[in-house]
Amino acid sequence: MLVGIVNYGAGNLYSIMGALEYLKIPYELVSSQERLSSCSHIILPGVGSFRKAMEKLHELNFYDPIIHCTRELNIPILGICLGMQLLCTSSDEDGFTKGLNLIGGHFALFDSSRRKVPHVGFDSAVPDSGSVLFKEIAEEVDFYFVHSYRLLETDSDTKYAYSVHDGERFISAFEKKNIFGTQFHPELSQGNGLKLLGNFVQLTTVNG
């Protein structure tokens, strides 16, 4: 087992590294496309701007290798926060920008006239039944969020988890075969987040 953390200059690396070290899971900071295919699992972190992050993925030649590793080699991938957003079709952040399109869906800004933006703090996440990412995690446990954009359009054949921000229900996680995403930060979510990361790295075959 070797978890590859995509190091493209837009990720919350140290907290993820610390969580994996705590779980005694071997990992590598992957800074070149050639190393991705040798990993058993991939984590795509991210903080900051969707547009700038996509520009960095293209600049460092990660775009096609990530798609190849997930679609052709079926390597499990977990996108965290901005990383989850990058796995989807597009976002409005800093102007309309196309993502990796591994999961269908578009991200748009929370309506700041009706709720506080950004959404920051601990909130519960309720997954669809049969979720492998949330396996053996109690219902409606809290995870740590910090984000301003949420997923609107979605694939019908994908499992989701849902959270609520100031009365608006939004998608806070997804899973489709070997592709996973969490809008929250599992590495900053104490025991619940560590259990979720452990569930992800224990996957040896795709679900569904």
From TrEMBL:
Q: This protein's superkingdom?
A: Bacteria
Please classify the protein's predominant subcellular localization into one broad category: cytoplasm
Q: What is its EC number?
A: 4.3.2.10, 3.5.1.2
Q: Which GO terms describe its molecular function?
A: glutaminase activity; imidazoleglycerol-phosphate synthase activity; lyase activity
Any one Gene Ontology cellular component term annotated for this protein = cytoplasm
Name a biological process GO annotation: L-histidine biosynthetic process
Q: Does the keyword Amino-acid biosynthesis apply?
A: yes
Identify the residues that the record assigns to the Glutamine amidotransferase domain, covering every copy.
Answer: 5-200
Which PANTHER family did the record assign? IMIDAZOLE GLYCEROL PHOSPHATE SYNTHASE SUBUNIT HISH
Function of the molecule: IGPS catalyzes the conversion of PRFAR and glutamine to IGP, AICAR and glutamate. The HisH subunit catalyzes the hydrolysis of glutamine to glutamate and ammonia as part of the synthesis of IGP and AICAR. The resulting ammonia molecule is channeled to the active site of HisF.
Protein name, per record? Imidazole glycerol phosphate synthase subunit HisH
